[in-house]
Design brief:
Immunoglobulin-like; 494 residues; eight-stranded parallel sheet; four-stranded antiparallel sheet; single chain; alpha/beta; Oligo-1,6-glucosidase, domain 2; TIM Barrel; 3 domains
């Protein structure tokens, strides 16, 4: 039987606010994405993942959801989503949407009812607790965004839990009503035709029942696996659909517990995204990833950047060297069994942007004074010209920096040797060469500072992929392949 589509898909993350504005308000929207579908088809991806576009006060860029079954007017209407989905499918592009089950917005009707009347049934959907005898929060848990994970409800004097911003109260997943409501949310989007869901902070839903001190008690509780088994039952009613979980743990063995024939099909492996550009590190992480995730019903994920991480062109040194290394790492990983997740603008070689303090919007900045994630979320530069760089005719919600003009789509389109054309060629070759290859990865002898592996098809055809992680030329002896500094070569045999 053929592998399911998602097992080796290339998925392109679209940060909705930053991809394409269609109405001049400076904010990307669904109609803008719809208009750019031909670009994505030409790029050669298999699917797109849309970050949240639901009604939200936008305290955390839409991850504070006020209504899970509608579209925020900033981004359009449900009709715009339906049209986008239909045309994406017509082009052969699958569509993932984000689902955010750990917390809602403080503006969600459930939470508004919970604080308006402490005796309301909605109160039981959240984690309200009395403080300690001295008036301090119930325990020592800290928010991921800085400061205490507890905020006092002034009406009742109790505290509510929020592992993220205080505008994002955590739900109580020990309440069966929460389960029921999210099953309905999943079916709402599945009935509309979505192909899958990216699950936000999939490891965080259950907290230690006794609320004991210690950050290890704030998430990654075994009870959460029951949710994913329940959700998998819903998903499987709809045929060939898929989950990928954001399990933000760096211990791959713990992440692997979230996937399986009755749980999630895939989970992001963020230990890959934290690797230096180093042959030994790549081999160790890739080998363990294949051992843990390449099994029946699951497959690895290869991700180097997303909307929460410093762009890997910057992590790998920045400038021309950083872009070269970023492309080499992508070319190496994308040839392996499993799904590759690309983040918008990495195909242009964009680095982390320098967002001035007065323009920052990330709650991390406001809670801690740290720069936060705005630098990886700046808008897509479609044109080298104009203040809006083809993204908007208005004022962009986050400013562009100097790299926008130099690396814009229209500066690279059709230009031999550009990062954009290299991505297009890489994805074209992947569609042409990878299908039919066996899933076994055979490591080959390679010079110091280099890695090489072979994948072989049943018909004898094989693909050798070799990467030189050093700044000097190298030669792979068998087969004889010349490796320029910090590059990846695909070599077809048979």
């Amino acid at each position: 039987m053929a592998d399911p589509w998602w097992r080796d898909a290339v998925v392109y993350e679209i940060y909705v606010r930053s991809f394409q504005d269609s109405n001049g308000d400076g904010i990307g929207d669904l109609a803008g994405i719809h208009a750019r579908l031909p670009y994505l088809k030409r790029l050669g991806v298999d699917a797109i993942w849309l970050t949240p576009f639901y009604p939200s006060p936008m305290h955390d860029a839409g991850y504070d959801v006020a209504d899970y079954c509608d579209v925020d007017p900033r981004f359009g209407r449900l009709e715009d989503f339906d049209a986008l989905l239909a045309d994406a499918h017509a082009l052969g592009l699958r569509v993932f949407v984000d689902v955010v089950p750990n917390h809602t917005s403080i503006e969600h009707p459930w939470f508004r009812a919970a604080v308006a009347d402490p005796s309301a049934p909605e109160r039981e959907l959240y984690l309200f607790r009395p403080g300690r005898a001295d008036g301090s929060p119930p325990n020592d848990w800290q928010s991921v965004f800085g400061g205490s994970a507890w905020t006092r409800d002034e009406t009742s004097g109790e505290f509510y839990l929020h592992l993220f911003d205080s505008s994002q109260p955590d739900l109580d997943w020990r309440n069966p009503v929460v389960h029921e409501r999210f099953r309905d949310i999943l079916r709402f989007w599945l009935d509309r035709g979505v192909d899958g869901f990216r699950i936000d902070v999939a490891h965080a839903l259950y907290k230690d029942a006794a609320m004991r001190d210690g950050k290890e008690n704030a998430w990654d509780q075994d009870e959460v696996f029951g949710v994913w088994e329940e959700w998998r039952g819903v998903l499987d009613e709809y045929g060939d659909r898929s989950f990928v979980g954001e399990v933000f743990l760096y211990d791959m063995d713990r992440v692997a517990r979230y996937v399986g024939p009755t749980r999630l099909q895939q989970a992001f492996n963020f230990s890959i995204a934290k690797m230096p550009f180093d042959a030994e590190a790549f081999r160790a992480k890739v080998t363990r990833s294949l051992e843990l995730f390449e099994r029946d019903g699951t497959s690895p994920t290869w991700v180097l950047s997303n909307h929460d991480l410093i762009r890997h062109a910057t992590r790998f040194g920045g400038g021309e060297a950083g872009r070269r290394r970023a492309l080499a790492a992508t070319a190496f990983l994308i040839a392996l069994p499993g799904s590759a997740y690309l983040f918008q603008e990495e195909e242009l070689g964009l680095e982390q942007s320098d967002v001035p303090p007065e323009a920052r919007q990330d709650p991390i900045w406001f809670r801690t004074g740290e720069a936060g994630r705005d630098g990886c979320r700046t808008p897509m530069p479609w044109s080298a010209n104009g203040d809006g760089h083809g993204f908007t005719t208005g004022k962009p919600w986050l400013p562009f920096d100097d790299q926008a003009a130099a690396l814009a789509v229209d500066k690279q389109d059709g230009v031999a040797g550009s990062t954009l054309e290299a991505y297009r060629e890489l994805l074209r070759r992947r569609r042409e060469l990878v299908p039919g290859l066996g899933r076994e990865v055979a490591w080959l002898d390679a010079p110091d500072g280099c890695l090489a592996f072979r994948r072989t098809a049943a018909d004898g055809r094989s693909l050798v992929v070799a990467t030189n992680f050093t700044a000097e030329p190298r030669t792979l002896p068998q087969p004889v392949v010349t490796l320029d500094p910090e590059t990846t070569v695909w070599h077809l045999e048979g």
